[in-house]
Structures are given as C-alpha cells and as structure tokens.
Amino acid sequence: MLKSEGRTEQLLAGKRALITGSTSGIGLATARALYAEGAEVILNGFGDPDEIAALTKEMDAVHSSTNLLDPAAIEGMMGEIGPVDILINNAGMQYVSPVEDFPTDKWDAILALNLTAAFHTSRLAVPAMKEAGWGRIINTASAHSLTASPFKSAYNASKHGIVGFTKTIALELAQTGVTANCISPGYVWTSLIEGQIPDTMAARGLSREEVINDVLLAKQPTKKFVQPEEIGALAVFLCREEAGNVTGANWSIDGGWTAE
Ligand code: NAD
User: Fold this and answer.
1) Pocket around ligand 1 at a 6 A CB cut-off
2) Mind listing the pLDDT tens digit for each residue in 63-72?
3) Which helix (H) or strand (E) is 230 found in, with range?
4) Mean pLDDT throughout 103-123?
C-alpha cells in the first residue's frame, strides 16, 4: 500500500507544514504528529545526513538545511518551498552564563535564531496564508517566556520576545483565518537540555545529578520531564478547525512550573 493511501480523510490532509528545527527533539516530534494527521511536512535543521535521509523517508518529507541565523538564507528557503499552511517556528538554542561573562556573539545568535528567524519566516509565510483564508503559526516559546532563571539572559529575553511578537501578529491577523500562538514547554529531555548541563554545573558549582534534580526538575511540580510527543499533540490541536478562535495565546505545558 502506498504511504499516501488513506491520508486524504485525515485531519490535516492537504495542509503543508514547515517545522523549523525538526531534525531532533520537540520539532521532530511535532513533525511526526502533523504527518500522522495527514500533513505534508517540510523539515529543517542540522544533523547526521543518514539520519536526516531516514527522517525524510519516514515522513515522505523534504528537508531544508537552511541556517536560520541568516535572514537572506531564510528568504531563499521560503521562496524555494513555496506557500505553507502551517508554520511552526521551533528552532532554538541556549547558552548558560552569568551576564557579565555572556559572550556577545552568543547573545546575537540566540536572539537571531529564537526570535528574529520567526519574524522572517512569518512575514514571508503570511501573505499566502491570508490569501488562502487559513493558516496556523505556532511558535515554540518556553516556560522562560513567563518566568526567568539566572544565567539565561539571552534565552529568556528571546522567549519573552517571541510571545510579544506572537500576540502582535495574532491581532494583525485576527480576521483573516490565520491564528498565531505560542507553546511554552517546561523542561523536555532533548539535546538542548543535555547540552546545557555542563555549563550549568560550572555556573552553579553542582554535579550532573544535582543539576537534573535540584535545578531542572525542581521547577516542575510533576517531577517529570515533558515529553516531546505531548507538545506535538498540542500543536495538532492548535491546527484543528475547533482552535480557530484560539489566537494570541501562550500555552503552558510545563508540569505546573508557571502555576507557582
Ligand atoms: P534540539 O536541540 O533537540 O532541537 C533544536 C533544533 O533546531 C534541531 O533540529 C537543530 O538542528 C535546529 N537548529 C539549531 N540551530 C539551527 C539553525 N541555526 N538553523 C536551523 N536549525 C537550527 O532542542 P529542543 O529542545 O527540541 O528545542 C526546540 C525548541 O524548544 C527550542 O526553541 C527551545 O528553546 C524550545 N524549548 C525547549 C525546551 C526543553 O526543555 N528542551 C523547553 C522549552 C522550550
């Protein structure tokens, strides 16, 4: 049986979705969730070429290796892939350091990827969404869009910023059939979290176990990491017709972290 057989009846049949940063972690789980509902998915991100080839095969997807730090490259990518119905701005990076030592190039890169890239993809995707009278823009923010932790100045600024950006375009697009929302996960066990453990150990003088239990999970009343698949399921909900009035919102999925 062809992979495409039976997909025309599915929730997101006929919809094209670009998911940035979808070669791993949350973006990959979201791409899989949208694909499972019938969407045509366009992957983006870096990684091992064989692993990416396996992902494109798994999801009948195309993949763009565009570096989203480069606005001109984003323009090229958006022109190449053409109109999308669903835009998930998910690619992101983190760096952990006291502000006085924070490398200025890291600050610039984090703001460029976590915030400015979403501006560029959105401004380029919106005209076709408006034309179609339907669209979904979903930005992966973070619990750090609502609250802060020390040593993450650039990340927290970028994530607070993406919420402001999302609310603004939600208002601009409110009567067009296009919604814009953020999803704000708590800690999800992905390479982004794994990668910040050594720096957090150094910045706070803690062991690996102490960082996991006393810094990361200490924030989450459930004492569990959020699963990437849980975020994919929320993204699917936001793409449903029933979510047409959900716009300008920032959806926490953080084990109760920001309830405190
Ligand atoms: P991840 O490291 O597993 O995935 C990051 C993705 O972004 C990868 O596909 C990577 O290749 C891609 N990427 C990195 N730099 C890029 C660039 N310059 N251009 C294009 N793609 C690039 O991390 P993740 O945890 O899945 O993070 C995804 C998003 O979720 C990020 O925006 C992150 O801030 C957010 N988030 C993560 C957590 C968490 O606990 N993991 C919590 C809240 C929010």
Assistant:
1) 21-27, 44-47, 67-69, 90-93, 113-114, 140, 142, 185, 187-188, 190-193
2) 999 999 999 9
3) helix 228-239
4) 98
